[in-house]
Specification:
The structure is a homodimer. The first copy, chain A, is an alpha/beta fold. Chain A folds into 2 domains: about 15-175, NAD(P)-binding Rossmann-like Domain (Rossmann fold, 3-Layer(aba) Sandwich), CATH 3.40.50.720; about 180-290. Chain A is built from 11 helices and 7 strands. Chain A has helices at about 20-35, 45-55, 80-85, 100-110, 155-165, 175-205, 205-210, 225-235, 240-265, 270-280, 285-290; strands spanning about 15-20, 35-40, 65-70, 90-95, 120-125, 145-150, 170-175. In chain A, strands 2-1-3-4-5-6-7 form a 7-stranded mixed sheet, sandwiched between helices. Chain A is elongated and about 75 Å long. The model of chain A is unreliable at about 280-294 (pLDDT under 50). The interface between A and B is large, with 84 and 85 residues.
């Protein structure tokens, strides 16, 4: 029960961080703070230079094999970058941190990479819904960090990834790639799509209407400057997000039908139907329905 | 620019508050604090007695015509209660505070009430989305309070209602009843339905999924104990809420179609389509769409 802060003992000595966006740079800052020698790389030399100025690592290319490469690039580029790391002997293990897991891992396999030395990961970032992130060493502190090993992933690779998670102060959560993608679609991506669609409708509402909202503030749809990464993430997880949204559209249509029935004749037990749809506690019929059995 | 708090000068002397739920009792508390003699009435004598104990007014029936009756009953009962007030000479003016306006006002007319002496109102309450309200004198302070006069409503009746709004520290907003109902459907009721449907789906999600949410907290659908009033309010505004939800269901279906196209072939400009749907800033095609022109 000591309150002494113990510096985690990492077995990583050197790392290569590929992609110096906010996620990659935050990982690099945390690794550097943990005593790891971090090499930074980005397709844009200015972006890499800015990360180096923040103290995230060095711009010098690694002399030989680093212990681990953190692949912080868009989902569609993960496979190619992992392949390059393995071919050129840049790192013994690779960990990608893309926000979607099944597609990049399938790509890693399709490109003939050695799956024993790769592992997928997804650090869940607080405030990711609020706009552009800023790199900082504690971006992942206390947050879950999903790790999705391939069936072939070696325990050494898993342990190297756990070192990164530990250095970042995050909580590792092992999860199957497809399960991860469904979960993110349900708890994060689909809700953000709904918020954005609702905001777009409020934009078109008369100003008087907005005064009546709880806050009196008109929410904004995804601004175009924030949207590119989110649209990419949606596309990378398109089937799972589409499934959740399709289910919700069905739920909404059921509510609309109940409301239209209420306007039509008052004989139907519309209140009961709506309660079942909106307050399903203790109503088994609806609980089944939300399980997708209808 | 004086910071002296001036006690508003009300022309109301006596009022009858019918319905001692949180809204009615809060109005009664504010009126009493403003020096008005308030008579309380509720179909449940215990509820009325509790409001009186809070200092909201007296349980004595009014001797004759009060200046104004605040009709704080469910939307479906407004017409009958206004009729009773006018028939029995309980109040010179009546103000209903139902959360939906068109239906109750139509009912007031259909029951042959004198429309010159009635006005509809809706105090917008902070925290109404968070669960059961508690009566307090400052419940409406700084919040908008919609007033929806009938075409026949007399200026004296409007001024009596404005006195109530002033006593409550709210900001009066004159608005057509149908416009009010559409606005509330758009900014409050439809978003709450969406939140509730999403929460119902999260309830059915595996626990691991919920750990990945921004907050790690599983939102709750409307609990059955909170839901009765909200379901009543939805039913009372069924056509307007159904219209908003139907539009949103259409938006969601369009997003689903774009996502399915992305999973199918990569040739379609799905990113562009999604950006148009979710980040419509500066994209006229979508701005038209949210205006309902498609």
């Amino acid at each position: 029960m000591s309150t002494l802060l113990v510096q985690p003992q990492l077995s990583l000595r050197t790392a290569l961080v590929i992609g110096a966006g906010p996620i990659g740079t935050s990982v690099a800052l945390a690794l550097t703070a943990g005593g790891v020698r971090v090499h930074l790389r980005d397709t844009d030399p200015e972006v890499a230079a800015r990360a180096a100025e923040l103290g995230a690592g060095t711009l010098e290319p690694p002399g030989g094999n680093t212990d681990l490469a953190v692949v912080a690039v868009p989902p569609g580029r993960v496979g190619a970058v992992v392949r390059e790391c393995q071919r050129r002997g840049l790192a013994r293990h690779t960990l990608d941190v893309a926000g979607v897991k099944a597609g990049p891992l399938a790509d890693v396999l399709a490109r003939g990479c050695d799956p024993a030395r790769h592992i997928g990961g997804h650090p869940l970032v607080e405030g990711a819904a609020d706009g552009p992130l800023t790199a900082r060493a504690d971006l992942f502190r206390g947050r879950p960090w999903v790790l999705s090993p391939l069936p072939q992933t070696h325990t050494d690779t898993l342990n190297a990834a756990l070192d990164v998670v530990t250095a970042c102060g995050a909580t590792p959560v092992l999860m199957d790639a497809a399960e991860h993608d469904r979960a993110v679609a349900l708890v994060a991506q689909a809700p953000r799509v709904l918020t954005s669609l609702l905001a777009a409708r409020l934009e078109a509402a008369p100003p008087g209407a907005v005064r009546l909202s709880e806050t009196g503030v008109r929410p904004r749809p995804w601004a175009s400057e924030d949207s590119r990464g989110r649209i990419e993430a949606l596309l990378a997880n398109a089937p799972a997000v589409a499934d959740v949204l399709e289910g919700l559209a069905g739920d909404i249509v059921a509510v609309v039908a109940a409301l239209r029935a209420a306007s039509g004749d008052g004989t139907a037990d519309t209140g009961g139907r709506l309660t079942g749809l909106l307050a399903p506690h203790g109503t088994p019929a609806v609980r089944n329905r939300t399980d997708g059995s209808s």
